[in-house]
Amino acid sequence: MVNVAEPDCRRAWQDRFAAVRAHSRWLTEPLSPEDHQLQSMPDASPAKWHLAHTTWFFETLVLRPHAPAYEVFDPAYAYLFNSYYEALGPRHPRPQRGLLSRPALDEVWAYRRHVDEAVARLAQDADDDTWAKVVPTLELGLHHEQQHQELILTDILHAFSLNPVGPAYRPLAQWLGRVGAQGDGHGGAASAEFAAAWWPVEGGLADIGHAGPGFAFDNEQPRHTVWLRPFELATRPVSARQHLAFIDEGGYRDPRWWLSDGWSCVQSQGWTAPAYWQAPAQPHGAWHAFGLHGWQPLDLDAPASHLSFYEADAHARWAGARLPTEFEWEAATATTPTPGLRGIGQVWEWTASPYTAYPGFQPTPGAAAEYNGKFMVNQIVLRGGSRFTPPGHARPTYRNFFPPATRWQCAGLRLARDAP
Amino acid sequence: MVNVAEPDCRRAWQDRFAAVRAHSRWLTEPLSPEDHQLQSMPDASPAKWHLAHTTWFFETLVLRPHAPAYEVFDPAYAYLFNSYYEALGPRHPRPQRGLLSRPALDEVWAYRRHVDEAVARLAQDADDDTWAKVVPTLELGLHHEQQHQELILTDILHAFSLNPVGPAYRPLAQWLGRVGAQGDGHGGAASAEFAAAWWPVEGGLADIGHAGPGFAFDNEQPRHTVWLRPFELATRPVSARQHLAFIDEGGYRDPRWWLSDGWSCVQSQGWTAPAYWQAPAQPHGAWHAFGLHGWQPLDLDAPASHLSFYEADAHARWAGARLPTEFEWEAATATTPTPGLRGIGQVWEWTASPYTAYPGFQPTPGAAAEYNGKFMVNQIVLRGGSRFTPPGHARPTYRNFFPPATRWQCAGLRLARDAP
Amino acid sequence: MVNVAEPDCRRAWQDRFAAVRAHSRWLTEPLSPEDHQLQSMPDASPAKWHLAHTTWFFETLVLRPHAPAYEVFDPAYAYLFNSYYEALGPRHPRPQRGLLSRPALDEVWAYRRHVDEAVARLAQDADDDTWAKVVPTLELGLHHEQQHQELILTDILHAFSLNPVGPAYRPLAQWLGRVGAQGDGHGGAASAEFAAAWWPVEGGLADIGHAGPGFAFDNEQPRHTVWLRPFELATRPVSARQHLAFIDEGGYRDPRWWLSDGWSCVQSQGWTAPAYWQAPAQPHGAWHAFGLHGWQPLDLDAPASHLSFYEADAHARWAGARLPTEFEWEAATATTPTPGLRGIGQVWEWTASPYTAYPGFQPTPGAAAEYNGKFMVNQIVLRGGSRFTPPGHARPTYRNFFPPATRWQCAGLRLARDAP
Amino acid sequence: MVNVAEPDCRRAWQDRFAAVRAHSRWLTEPLSPEDHQLQSMPDASPAKWHLAHTTWFFETLVLRPHAPAYEVFDPAYAYLFNSYYEALGPRHPRPQRGLLSRPALDEVWAYRRHVDEAVARLAQDADDDTWAKVVPTLELGLHHEQQHQELILTDILHAFSLNPVGPAYRPLAQWLGRVGAQGDGHGGAASAEFAAAWWPVEGGLADIGHAGPGFAFDNEQPRHTVWLRPFELATRPVSARQHLAFIDEGGYRDPRWWLSDGWSCVQSQGWTAPAYWQAPAQPHGAWHAFGLHGWQPLDLDAPASHLSFYEADAHARWAGARLPTEFEWEAATATTPTPGLRGIGQVWEWTASPYTAYPGFQPTPGAAAEYNGKFMVNQIVLRGGSRFTPPGHARPTYRNFFPPATRWQCAGLRLARDAP
């Protein structure tokens, strides 16, 4: 195991801290102070709040316990920027985050600098014992900030989608210049090519979950054994073209394909296509989709995205297939390389698995115990990552999770079926 | 396999049909016409509706396809008494079932007689081929009616609980005279006796699901393999006394024990004890509970019941244990006898398992395809049966399921823990 | 003034009491025990509850204060059957009245007999002083029961309208045999005849409100002066035919005619016609309406009914007219006879007047202070009575009131306009 | 009548236009771009939206019809900044105004300059006929902007009140330097002085409504006659001290004082004091109130403010008095000077009058017809103006109106009673 107290290692941590923090700046550069303020639904948060909350995490879990001389930037922030940690005291109501015009964006950036400098001083001054205690929480904080980096994008996209002028978050070229294309760039495919593309996976006992080295969240552990029957995975995520076929064949009007709760959503919320998709105004016109680069013609060969679990599940049933379980997904992809599977990392892939604890699960000790475990009900696991995910953040054992009606995340599906 | 077309076998089916149908009459005898009308929440249904809906099931799935001379009792009933079968046409809105004062209770009983007689004629007259086709659906219909028999009780209990005069459904003696004590009669236990009572179960590969002979629902199939780690089950369900200890130690006020969604329920709905439990009006007074026999002092040694999954899960965490998965539960109990486990069949036992499809799951063909599969999301599996369950209805592979906030069912919990 | 303590007068009161109470029986005769239980929305009450509540009124306000030997029928009824009298203690939640299957209908009738007999004894035995105190409340109780007699009908009609089998409350012939045609029988009129039919009324000072003799509610008093400008009233209520013209000309799709709150109702609740009206299934087919005698072809010459205030107001604006104020209505109709005005008493007529206190208003002393005054906000005055109103109940100064979105009452409109 | 086409008159209009527009700038100067974005409830709007909407009014109703060369600033604004004018096309949903981070604040100010310059050019270039047509709408637009100036303050106050850091809109000194003390500065009074202070007004016929000269809204017209009984008005609005007495005597816990709908609000929303009032944290501590200058000790001698109509009405009933009708209020105050009445213009004074049309009411012709008339239901009239009202905006015939549960306006009450 790495000796995290060694000088080189400290420098590496400092660099990594600086890099993650700088990425948050790059991500929010296109946003005006007013944009930073937007909260378009209770499940989303303002970009400014994300910037402050991720900073509060370091202040509260790294600096306050481990940096004795640290001066809290503003005592009120403990209330304003705690998200859901009951053990850390009361907090501002989630649906009212968008009302915090004060502190201003400038003050939040001053807060970030204040904390960044204190972390840098801690990395420099801490004795080895202290530093060894700091590192696990520091690392958790960086992964935590990366999760919020993705939410900054999904949340601003939702807010912009409700603005009739349809603002573009960032031009495509600018985005690609920094982030590049996500995944392996082979996600979409013409449907003609698709039919035969099943990737067989053998059954039997499989080891699931993180075994190190490197970081993983508590919910990816402990590594454990499951029994799998032989199955097949589609070599690519379902494309927009394939999902248009589902739409064209009346998929959103036929209860046969839907779970009962999903059909209720279709009817009560009037779903006729994924979120942000707009049907042609004229017959034979083009579908459009709203994304980070504004309204664009729908890319038919790219993975279908902004589907709820209900839509993913219905599509799979209509296609005569099913969603893979998260164990099937992990077993098929954990071995690097997986030459038969393309498009991983382009859209989060809904699995068939409700989000539950692995056998022997133990939450992270301390305040971070609330990080993952208390959400293990009413959610579905997604795997793989998306183009909204910061580069390097996801891994084969990574378990993302959202309620089944969620559509504002960049999520699609990959088909599975039992071995013939 | 039994030849269901043989005369003796037909008579056995007729007897069984008559017995199940007669039990519905016995169950509803204490209810006035007004009681039959009550619908106290959208999830519950009036007793009269249950009586008609179970009859509609036989009319629609047995008589109409297989008894050519059958005359439909009233064409309007197809709309009034369909529950959720999309393939069988539109239906009366569920929350408005309580508004169907017409047809009157007498008419519903006439409907039941009409269908009972038609089924009897069919059993007598059908040729062997027809009868062989009839039996699977007839059997499904009987198990379906038994499920509704349990709901008749849980639903009327909920309705009566909201009546300030607190009506008793039936005197205890009358109930015991017919149904007897449920389970093995050894559910409760003094807490002193409890601590040491763990029943160890070995790990490894286990076969889960129904393998025949006899009836099972589609959701109990196919039988398949899972890998289990060694674990222990409590020999008895958690008693009311144990749950009072959870209450007394502030369990309903401490977010540490609760899933996030559960804590939201506690706060928004003001939960301070299980449903139907009433705290003492005076210090050192007795707790009471509302049940089928009216308001009674809480039986401290009986299994705690009318808990939601959230409460069961929180209790287990507080007790330093956890809920068993449904696979652990089945593996531990499937072998008859299980001398180490008591109290099975007294309260439905919440498991840790979300309700999902078994690997290779195929819904029952035909209209009954909607019976189970379309509910496989947002629900938690319960196992074992309760004193509200008709005798003989449950079995070790039986999977009951309800949303995690459900409290009007007779549900409690049994603790589990990893092997030391 | 009448000496209410004289023997003849006592007998008259007894007869009147018996007659009003008997009318409640006649009204509920067609209803089964299940029908008596129905509560189809929070604003409506079960017929059984109306029967008990009106009886509770006599028990609480007449017998308990004035009949020393009176034995309360059941102490629980004070909680179950209080409607909204804060001064008389807590009460069963209004939306849960439909859950009171117990006490059974038979018990409620026993309650009524118990109270009827006690009132009869009181009339016989009370000394003159006591009797003089009893009479005002007794009379109030009779008018109160008549108001609930109307609600029994409007509430059961609403409940039956939600039953797909569309039960008829009572055959028309049976109804007419007892109640007769309501009003003067001249409500409807061909539209051709209508145009010229304005009834002019002079302006100036007018006296408004009840001046005696005879009973009136506190809200009709004190009699006071208003200044009116000259105006004209339509000689007949707006007919169904006229309102169909409003519908046909797109009235329910054009915001110009509607108050802002009314337009919100149109859109959020999808109003396209009055409540209980059903458009033709085929082009050129007939409109139907659901009423006390079941589904019937819409009577085009009868007054349009089951309109909200918003619809009445929009119709008037579309017709180039307006609604009369309640003062205009009373000034025009208070003088008997009013040969120019027809159709009074067929439908309650929405006025332009919000329901407020008359200058110098004083609530009835005692518990009945809550009878009218505390509702004097957010409601609109209706005048005249309807075919659902018990014969003899309404009078020219009578002020009925409901919130402006109310549609389950038998309400329509009469046009008014400024004098040319 | 003034000849609005004369050069001097044109200059006067230009000056007045410039002055009103400049006041909007002064009012919003303390607000950051993020503050401008806040919408804390559907009834409130962001300051930025107010700035744009008032500009859209001039663009749409003045420039587009009357300035042929005018170039629309941005066609999208017609959709974004229309408030509720159905005749002017569809509009952005009111509850989503806070999501319009684009256009940015700078762009809205560019819009204002664009329109201001175009209005200036129109004033210079228009021929006399055109100008004569322009002036009524221009004047309406200025009064419209003044109404929104008041809303800018009430809306930001509501938003700031939900921010735990309690931002002050503006220091008191800065406010007084520009606006000065409102009203006559004699609103509050020690309660000892209060008791005897009733101002008697004679009854009889009174003329109500605007008779010119000068501007008035359509809803203040036509002037008409009412009959009043003699009455008395309190010489001062109810003070905070008086309302604390109501609180201390249990006023918020006693249903006797409350209208039924008001009592429902008290219970469902947990009212225990006016909006923005905070009870002492310690016994014998001081009450505080949140206002434009942040959290301040409650000024006991100032008029109680931020009361709903329900609280005003309950207070009056508790005090043995009542609210005046709007006619009483106007009759008592219309004669200048009214030496007996103090404090007018410090808080809007709830009257007893629902907001309805005056006899003979005709809406302003054209698109502005929707300005007032369509809101004439479910609202209560307030009179007098408040310290939030722009100087010179209100007048004795001015009718403000809000729903009875409204608390975010600066509203209080003045007691009235019948003449002894």
State the share of residues found in helices of chain A, binned by percent.
25-40%
**Which descriptor suits the 3D outline of chain A?**
globular
Radius of gyration of chain A: 22 Å
Average pLDDT number of chain A: 93
Q: Name the helix and strand elements of chain A from N-terminus to C-terminus, one letter apiece.
A: HHHHHHHHEEEEHHEEEHHEEEEE
Decide which structural class fits the backbone of chain A: alpha+beta
The two chains with the largest interface, and their residue counts, are: A-B, 35 and 35 residues
* Number of distinct beta strands of chain A: 12
Distance between the termini of chain A: 44 Å
| Largest beta-sheet characterization of chain A | 4 strands, mixed
Enumerate how many helices of chain A there are, as a single number. Answer: 12
Strand content of chain A is 5-15%
Task: Give the oligomer, counting copies of the same chain as homo and different chains as hetero.
Answer: homotetramer
Unreliable stretches of chain A (pLDDT < 50, length at least 5) are 188-196
Strand order within the widest beta sheet of chain A: 10-9-8-11
Would you give an account of this structure?
Four copies of one chain form a homotetramer. With 420 residues, chain A is α+β, with helices and mostly antiparallel strands. Helix content of chain A is 37%, strand content 11%. The first copy, chain A, has a four-stranded mixed β-sheet. A three-stranded antiparallel β-sheet of chain A has the order 1-4-12, with helices on one face. In chain A, a hairpin with a 2-residue loop joins strand 6 (288-291) and strand 7. Chain A is globular, with a radius of gyration of 22 Å. Chains in contact: A-B, A-D, B-C, C-D. The interface between C and D is medium-sized, with 35 and 35 residues.
